[in-house]
Write a structure and sequence with these properties.
Distance between the termini: 82 Å
Radius of gyration: 23 Å
Strand order of the largest sheet: 1-2-7-4
Length: about 500
């Protein structure tokens, strides 16, 4: 009897899986054949998700359809193949795809309840409240803080150059951006440039370092969100979560006790915590964030702010180290602009450094820190021209890395060429062919801040140092499969010389 029960259970399991894996076939959508249990994620412990999505994209991109089908475990996912369709999803028909589909658990893992994971009206209201943090006026106010940290960064690099000049640039740039974000978001001196073992730097690294099991748990929680919430799955490291919770609590208490107003990100969050305003047409409170929500917003701003910018800068310097002619051109741009401003590194000056901006954009093109972007279908959506309806709950994946490496949009895509972002070439390209920050109403809220600190960091470095490849630098970079961003295995070692 037991044997037959087991046989029945196994047969039922195969039947369910078989029906799930026939999802796209039954709708006449081209798809990549999945394999149980990972679907099209087989090998994710060894290869980065950017490359797995690119594999599927390359198999499907010439099928002539707006999207193709893939599977995360047994769940169907629509893989965007057409840039016009990408524009529909992210901009034109945003009301059908306004949620990112990122896992969060307010009870079991409160630090995950941030702007990136929030959904619906709650996201919209908070986004509206946080947007003033990133106006031109606020950027200008934060600029002296960034240049002050950049000057400390220059001094640290000078010491390294005098001691042999072999530097793991990703780590040093992460320490620079950690100190910038720590000051701008928390109003705290992180001191990671002076002390590589500073607590903020340690926790930042730990937040982005995942064990193979932690990586699988993260993928599982995104794929089976309702089940994960019911099970109380947490994806943040408890030590990291406790550290940031305590840092935010202490900062709030200190500022409120001493009536300190710094006009920074934390100041805005404190005002939202104490706000009383309520939308008359909706019971959702527009202000009055809970402490957990404040901590979550500060955490994601810190994490995204230090990691994406440091990633973009480190890959940029890696490419410039391989092409001294491009490096000299970028350096000349810095020097010529600064000469117009009597040598002062001002907000206006760094925004005139077109060559620097083009280098950063080409780095973001070739090495997008966030290589894939997910969206949830929040209500049934008919895809015109395909006679297919994406059902409510379907996931949609934009393969940013794959698009950025598609020769149809970027000829010879593995070549680093900042001129791709000249006004002339940019105007000839589809507006959705370059998406390092996403697009539409959910475009990265801190995009301008990230670009500003990247401009400042590179301008200071190129003005004072020459970069060459180190013997420790692999000529072919290997992506770290367990990293949530596009990180290189073993770091990025460069040799630096003073000018």
């Amino acid at each position: 009897m037991l044997f037959y029960l087991i046989l029945l259970a196994v047969s039922l399991g195969f039947y369910v899986v078989g029906r799930r894996y026939a999802y796209w076939k039954n709708r006449n959508v081209p798809y990549v054949e999945p394999s149980f249990p990972f679907g099209n994620l087989s090998g994710m412990s060894k290869r980065h998700m950017a490359l797995l999505a690119q594999d599927s994209y390359r198999q499907l991109k010439d099928c002539g359809k707006k999207f193709g089908g893939i599977f995360f475990f047994i769940n169907p996912v629509a893989l965007i193949l057409d840039l016009d369709f990408a524009k529909d999803v992210f901009i034109k028909d945003f009301q059908y795809f306004h949620d990112r589909g990122v896992y969060s658990n307010e009870k079991a893992d409160p630090i995950t309840t941030h702007l990136v994971s929030m959904e619906g009206i709650k996201w919209k209201n908070l986004r509206t409240k946080l947007t003033p943090t990133f106006t031109t006026g606020k950027m200008k106010m934060m600029f002296p803080t960034i240049t002050a940290v950049a000057e400390e960064f220059r001094k640290c690099m000078l010491v390294e150059a005098q001691n042999g000049g072999e530097v793991e640039m990703k780590e040093f740039l992460s320490r620079f951006t950690t100190d910038v974000i720590g000051t701008c978001a928390f109003g705290l001196e992180c001191n990671s440039l002076k002390d590589p073992e500073a607590k903020f730097r340690q926790m930042g690294k730990k937040a982005l370092t995942m064990t193979p099991m932690g990586f699988i748990r993260r993928i599982f929680s995104v794929t089976f969100r309702d089940l994960s919430r019911a099970l109380g799955v947490r994806i943040s490291d408890p030590e990291v979560s406790d550290f940031f919770m305590n840092a935010v609590r202490e900062t709030i208490e200190y500022r409120e006790r001493n009536k300190i107003n710094r006009n920074d990100f934390m100041d805005l969050l404190i005002k939202l915590k104490n706000a009383e305003s309520i939308d008359e047409n909706n019971t959702e409170q527009l202000g009055r964030l809970t402490f957990n929500e404040i901590a979550a917003q500060a955490f994601v701003f810190f994490l995204a702010g230090f990691e994406t910018s440091s990633t973009a800068m480190s890959y940029c310097l890696y490419e410039l180290a391989q092409n001294q002619e491009l490096q000299d051109k970028a350096r000349s741009n810095v020097e010529s602009v600064l000469a117009k401003y009597d040598g002062a590194m001002t907000y206006e000056a760094v925004h005139e450094m077109r060559s620097i901006e083009n280098c950063i954009n080409e780095s973001l093109r070739k090495y997008p820190p966030i290589p894939n972007i997910l969206r949830d279908t929040t209500k049934d959506y008919h895809v015109s021209g395909m006679n297919v309806t994406l059902e409510k709950g379907n996931r949609v994946l934009l393969p940013v890395y794959a698009i950025h490496h598609d020769a149809r949009y970027y000829p010879d895509p593995e070549r680093f060429d900042p001129e791709r972002f000249s006004p002339e070439q940019t105007a000839q390209r589809h507006s959705m062919a370059f998406l390092p920050f996403g697009e539409g109403p959910r475009v990265c809220i801190g995009m301008r801040f990230g670009m500003m600190q990247a401009r400042v960091g590179l301008a200071y470095l190129l003005q004072n140092f020459r970069f060459k490849l180190s013997p420790k630098t692999p000529r072919e970079l290997q992506l770290n499969a367990s990293s949530s961003v596009l990180a290189s295995q073993g770091g990025l070692w460069l040799h630096i010389e003073t000018l």
